[in-house]
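// run 5 | inverse folding | seed 20
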């Protein structure tokens, strides 16, 4: 199944964010963020809880009011009707039905999207043996895979995942990242948020955030070289020390 087909853009950037500001109840949440996400890449959106990651994600998928600035996805403004099946979003909390089977969930979301070619999504996420299993009887990692499968039924070109590996054991996290890489290799642009800084090692690029601002946006190896550190956590702390 080709998940990356469909709408094209004139540039190599799938997502372009320019001078993005978001204010909520007179509180400035995001402060002039500017960055691009390349097509077919995995970008880790990393930073502590409360730094603005989820607000940024919601802005990208079009569910957050923007105070000023622009977000363009494949040539269209974020939230445009044309992007409804092109951009997929998996929230931090499972947005699937625990009292339905795995396949019933997938079929339901496919009908919402008007999708018909979705038979291979279970194979993609490694759940072919769980078609008739109730979600409530799955492990946390398996349930996360079901949520991912439901996001894939419409063949998105951009996939936004909010804390998809939180609370999972290392083996399950590793297997999910392998799925993310396979999807990126088909051309899907993926953004994965996390407060686990070591997950930067699975990404092509990382965006380090703190207090609604971007500290760095580059491959983690480049960031570590610039900060003379040997791991993502040390690099993040070095940026904080240099900007405090």
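// decoded
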């Amino acid at each position: 199944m080709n998940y990356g087909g469909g709408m094209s853009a004139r540039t190599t950037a799938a997502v372009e964010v320019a001078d993005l500001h978001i204010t909520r109840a007179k509180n400035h949440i995001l402060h002039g963020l500017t960055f691009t996400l390349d097509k077919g890449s995995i970008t880790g959106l990393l930073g502590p809880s409360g730094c603005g990651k989820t607000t940024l994600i919601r802005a990208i998928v079009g569910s957050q009011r923007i105070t000023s600035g622009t977000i363009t996805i494949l040539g269209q403004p974020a939230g445009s009707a044309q992007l409804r099946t092109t951009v997929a979003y998996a929230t931090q909390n499972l947005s699937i039905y625990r009292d339905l089977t795995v396949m019933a969930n997938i079929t339901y979301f496919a009908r919402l999207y008007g999708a018909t070619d979705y038979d291979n999504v279970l194979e993609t996420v490694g759940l072919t043996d769980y078609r008739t299993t109730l979600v409530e009887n799955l492990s946390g990692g398996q349930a996360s895979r079901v949520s991912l499968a439901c996001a894939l039924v419409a063949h998105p070109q951009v996939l936004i995942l909010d804390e998809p590996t939180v609370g999972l054991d290392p083996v399950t996290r590793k297997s999910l990242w392998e799925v993310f890489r396979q999807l990126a290799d088909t051309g899907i642009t993926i953004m994965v948020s996390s407060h686990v800084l070591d997950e930067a090692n699975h990404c092509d690029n990382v965006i380090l955030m703190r207090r609604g601002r971007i500290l760095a946006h580059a491959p983690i190896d480049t960031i570590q070289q610039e900060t003379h550190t040997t791991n993502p956590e040390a690099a993040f702390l070095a940026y904080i020390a240099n900007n405090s």
